[in-house]
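Task card 7
Instruction: Convert sequence to structure tokens.
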Amino acid sequence: MKKKILLLCFALFGLFSIQAQTAFLVSGYVTDSNGVAINNHTVYIMSDSVNAFMYAATTTTNANGYYSFAITNVPILGPGFNFYIHTYDCNGIPHSSVFTNANPQNVVNFMICNGTLTTCNAFYSYVLASGSTNTYNFHDYSTGNPVSWSWNFGDGATSTLQNPSHTYNAIGSFVISLAITTASNCTSVYYDSVYVQSTSNTCHANFNYYQDSLNNHKYYFSNISTTTYQNLQIQYLWNFGDGYTSTSVNPDHIFPTTVAATTYNVCLTIKVLNSSSVIECQSTTCKSVTIANTNTNTCHANFNYYSDSNSTINTIHFINSSTSSYPNLQIVYLWNFGDGGTSTLQHPVHTYLNNPVAASYNVCLTIKVLNSANVIECQNTYCVYVTIGNPTTGCQNSFTFGHQNLVYNFNGNINSSNPTTYNWSFGDGTSATGQNVTHTFAQPSSGSNGYHVCLITVTSNNSGSSCTDSSCQFISIANTTGNIIHGFVTAGNYDVNDGYVLLYMANNATMSYTLIDTLSLDSIGYFHYENLTVPPVNPAFLIKAVINPSASYFTQYAPTFYLHAINWFNATAVFPSASSVFYNINMVQLPVNPITGTGTLGGNVFQGGFKSFGDSPLSGVELILTDEYDSPLKISYSNTNGNFSFLNLPMGNYKLHVEIAGVNYTPYLVTLSASNPGINNITVTVNTTGAIITGIENNSDHSSSISDIYPNPATSEAFLEIQTSKTEDVVISIYNYAGVRLSTAGYKVNGSQRVNLNQNHFTTGIYTVKIEATNGMSSVRKLVIAK
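Output:
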């Protein structure tokens, strides 16, 4: 970026002022912190172009660290005419000075770290503190043995600890910087960002499962999902990992018969919908289910039980009678007594609550046959309802329940038409009466995973006598956390099951992007990425969904970034998060009625500088054709020779966009008319000089160019250079991360002008800068402010 800034700042000598001309000298030394000269080091200078004079040059230091600029033909415009001189240290950090043309000689010395002498580099990672949604633990991984640390957490808070913790009091994105200094005075700064999520309403998908006692391949799934949303519809979608799905609340499923033991990734997705059928919250949880093989060896779980005659009727002895035909293999036992209690003993004894009336519990035994490598060879589950106390038959009750996170709705039932009272005990010290009740649980304490809920009913008959019954269920409540990126991709009414997503990792300090993975979409359009191992921890990501050409609706939708954007610079960055956060993509639809006409537009895509110098063609580059208002019309990709084309176009105005994540560009504005129905000589040239940039050769009678923002990240002022070949009205707008416009300024540019973005009053964060001109030129830049 350092060289790129100056390459875009040409000396326009034809614009010299007609006022008196003069000359002056700028010189100085570049040394390290010990006063040792740094030779062959680049120094830059440029003028303030506001006064219609532009000067830009570079030089390098000699063996003594000395540099100089002899500037001639400088107009005398008063002491307000500024020059900016700067250089970069070993960490890429700019060091600059400002002076006017009032003095004929100016001395500016720089003391910086020398890239050949220092080895310090700032770096850190962070994790969300256990049990928190807004407190982060930061860990310094800097090199060079720093002796001091300066943290800026992006919300006004700072720290000088090596490994601090910080709690954010607001949601949103925050840019964090760590500056280090070593004993030898080496300095380095590293930037990253964190996204603090809302903690108001959440939803968590979760489920349990058990095996049928007679069929090794049949499993029963119990939905225990939770949500804090009130009175909203919940949709359930199961994916059993074998190509089959279900929308039942608590489904059962028979898995395929296999020769060897097979593990399936079973996923439950819940969607919380408001009254407009808009998804308010979405969550997915996946668990592995291992299906036993179908060889001659088998295993079957089974047990008997009896009450303890020397104790109470609530103490039960369980006798394991499971069988296995596997010779000499280990068998492990997993008991679930239906009231939250468990055991791994072969023949356990369990005491239930001493209820005054009978209660039933669903007791399950799972056995696993393990080989010498602890791999499951066979697994089977057997469940039986165990009645504790004195059962009654004339007024047997039961209850069902539904819930949204910790808010549960209980519905009591009785097998009698006689008057009945319903008494509820929620297992948390509270109770209620009524056939249908609502109760809000507290999050279970550490070591507990739910509550034992009982319904006691008293039913009166015509003779005045009463009948009492009790039933109990254990309500499992669990937290789900994770460090994943996942979601669903839809295209209109389609779940995109024939496509993929591209996952780009962002470097917020340089605003560059790296493609790190391509994820295929499953049969319901779901993608899931977890266990991120690429540094730094929790950077920002871009997600882009693409439909395969084999899909019937391929030509109807444009490749789309998260939150309905077709361009990377309009996309919303995402962050690894808990599984309750879904990054769903609703793909942008192209015109329903295909546009038709006789016009054509096309050209070539190349990597490099000029075609005549033997540039190499680029294939697979996405080209987007929009109308003059940036609405997408058609998509094309460059072929192996770098060629692309758009056919059957009606006459009119169009814009051509090139879409490469992290690559800035200016759309090409073109008009097809009866006198010029085909324009097929457009050249798209993609350059890589430090940060990735792109240029589109514009063959119209005027041209414009826009530099990248510098410095970026910015701690105080930030600038960009605009060049035009004729007078243009340019409007620059700055938007925050949520897309809210914060400022707008207009400029009349003729030639080259340096623009101050005037963003000093903005808080630390990531911003979008949009530049628009009367010639149809528009461009977008990302700006990082790190104060």
